[in-house]
Automatic annotation (TrEMBL):
It comes from the Eukaryota. This is Uncharacterized protein.
Length: 99
């Protein structure tokens, strides 16, 4: 259910055809999969460090690493996206710094 909602949102943001896979939309827009976003929020809630900025940086690094691993394990979806965008953390960081 959450993935469907995220997919519909990303289709509108990207103005893409509905045949584009969720994995490709996530990579192109730089929006992490919803389950990874939820686990990052849980990490922040459970961790409760004094230094919130450091905790956010750690949560982001974990999310990007898990997202890269998930992308590399996927063998059938977003093949063009994977061919063009091999390193998701680098892609997302470039997209953030230029916006």
């Amino acid at each position: 259910m959450m993935e469907r909602t995220q997919r519909n949102m990303l289709l509108r943001v990207e103005s893409s055809y509905r045949t584009v896979s969720l994995a490709a939309l996530q990579v192109i827009t730089g929006v992490a999969p919803i389950e990874l976003q939820v686990s990052a929020r849980k990490y922040l809630y459970d961790d409760r460090q004094e230094d919130r900025k450091l905790a956010r940086i750690q949560a982001r690094a974990i999310t990007l690493s898990e997202w890269q691993n998930k992308s590399e394990q996927e063998k059938t979806k977003a093949l063009w996206s994977k061919r063009l965008i091999r390193d998701i953390p680098e892609w997302v960081d470039v997209a953030i710094s230029t916006s």
